[in-house]
Amino acid sequence: MQLTSLTALSPIDGRYADKTWELREICSEYGLIRFRVLVEIRWLEALAASPEIPEVVPLSESAQERLEQIAANFDVDEAQRVKQIEQTTNHDVKAVEYYLKERIGQHEELSKVKEFIHFACTSEDINNLAYALMLRECRERVLLPALEKMTAKLAELARMYAEQPMLSRTHGQPASPTTLGKELAVFVHRLARQRQQLADVQIMGKINGATGNWNAHIAAYPEVDWPAFSATFIDGLGLSQTPATTQIEPHDFIAEYFDALARANTVLIDFCRDLWGYISLGYFRQRMVDGEVGSSTMPHKVNPIDFENAEGNLGIANAILNHLASKLPISRWQRDLTDSTTLRNLGVGIAHGVLAYESIAKGAGKLEADAWRLGRDLNDNWEVLGEAVQTVMRRYGLPEPYEQLKRLTRGRRIERDALRDFIRELDIPEADRERLLALTPDTYLGNAADQARDI
Q: Helix or strand or coil: residue 414?
């Protein structure tokens, strides 16, 4: 059966293929090969630029232009050629080496130094740097912009509804009022912090040979300071050198990267569940889209499908990201191959998150607060002012303030007049009595509105 979006096993390449297209260039098999080709080219250029390696003469403008053309013009057809070579080599990185030798074979100058392609490298030298470049590009091009876009949208909603009073619910029960905007602002702060932690993860790499000791490098050129040479090369790629490794870069930074991303996803799961609840309570209406159907049998329904879809995808994303974060830093002795197959799922975990981010942005764009419904719930729960009353009573030393309000309000609703009658009997200064009598559930908001505006 031919592979199409209908026959794909993964919904990432099937049902949701049109929503994850940007990741294909970065995180696919093609993307991995493209980054391998780039690393091999940059390594050859670094060798040629070193006067301590006279066998690789400085590259002429023509040679440099040829190498840049190979890197810049590397497309799916070129990647397919690498795969054809791999059918013979049965080794993916060696196929890249042979591909490059093939591509420079007709260039007189480059053909003379073709054996310095992949010089002193183990496959992991190329792979770890390729994956590092993949994660860096994915972060810069996709993840950080997506998280910024969501944070900005939530901040916009928070400011829009900064002064909209809302009944809080702790343990699912009526609690001290807040504003709708402030509760959204909480997620803005949380998400912005996790986004920054993801941005701050240092992306690492190594190019130090078969067991991390530059054995072959030193055997060939003992006079070269290979640790310094490698550090300069890795820095030139925009990465940081891992100071000591086995054959493989230990992947600790990948764990940090995925842990940070998973925490951002967890914040968003919490957000999706809260929004689902607010929609269920009627605090938010969803703008309807012509032609959409909420149920195959109940025509009245407008379901919170965007937040449900996001929650499901965030869960799958975190399952993959958490596995990668816990598995990748573990390797038997100087290496085993369990990281190789695991890393190939890197893009799958990221893609499920990206699907969720798009769903959340879409769902947030449909939301409209229902001020009437929010106001009705507040007006039905005057007992939430019991906190304010007993706290003022504490200030003036009245006996058993908490217990008095507990007897008056716990487990039952109290009408406005009954609460005000209680306040009128309190032995407190007249100004405080009047302030409590003027208080209503929709004005007992603390500084919630200021918190929402201040984001």
A: coil
